[in-house]
Design goal:
With about 230 residues, this protein is mostly helical. The chain is built from seven helices and no strands.
Length: about 230
């Protein structure tokens, strides 16, 4: 990662239909800006290798190869709330709210003195948290658009009555459960037949059910960690 690869990655995003205003804050080179820029390039769903330092030429070649057939791409914010059932309206609104908070934190980060590492780290932690939450909302919306199935982004579980020890045990058990379920989903996805197979839709349905169950557990883990933090 260096200034050349950062500049090429920025050009890659713009040339493939990315919104220049959205990444204006990340145009100058820094490790944090490079990470955010990679995130937005991935949102374009193009096959781009993300090089390490010294491989700027590789990106340039990829740009030339990908540019020719590319069509203009829509922003992830080009959809409408009316496209989604009411269960996902909260995710639709929160996605943009998290994006605005992340932008505000980025501006705040730019004003932090370079010697104030503690403040910079605290802001970066909050910024990444908002980007992760925005990504979770986007996954729920994408899941509905692709499968017409609802994936909730929040849990109604209440852990406030658990003791500190019970919370830690519940959190650790939930983490272990998530790891096992991810492994199960990976095996099921690898075992999916071709989409022309008569059994494809049934097995895909099983995979989607497992993914939705995993999201529920991940939401519970986030609630558990938040409860532990606020004790």
């Amino acid at each position: 990662m260096n200034r050349d690869t950062h500049r090429e990655l920025y050009q890659q995003y713009i040339s493939n239909g990315g919104d220049a205003k959205k990444v204006q804050l990340y145009k100058s080179f820094s490790p944090a800006n490079y990470a955010k820029l990679k995130y937005f390039v991935k949102q374009l769903n193009i096959d781009v290798p993300f090089p390490d330092a010294g491989s700027a030429k590789k990106i340039t070649q990829t740009v030339t190869k990908v540019n020719t057939p590319e069509k203009p791409r829509k922003s992830i914010f080009s959809d409408f709330i009316s496209q989604y059932p009411k269960e996902l309206h909260s995710a639709f609104k929160q996605r943009y709210d998290h994006w605005l908070e992340a932008c505000a934190l980025k501006v705040e980060l730019n004003d932090v003195h370079q010697t104030d590492e503690e403040t910079a780290y605290d802001i970066q932690f909050k910024l990444l948290d908002h980007l992760e939450k925005m990504d979770r909302c986007q996954k729920a919306l994408d899941h509905y658009n692709k499968n017409k199935r609802i994936m909730l982004t929040e849990t109604l579980a209440d852990f406030s009555k658990l003791s500190p020890m019970e919370l830690l045990k519940k959190r650790n058990a939930t983490r272990s459960n998530i790891t096992k379920r991810k492994a199960t989903i990976k095996k099921m996805e690898d075992a999916l037949p071709k989409n022309t197979d008569p059994d494809y839709r049934r097995k895909l349905h099983q995979v989607n059910c497992k993914i939705e169950q995993l999201i529920v557990i991940e939401n519970e883990l986030e609630k558990l960690e938040e409860t532990i933090k606020n004790q």
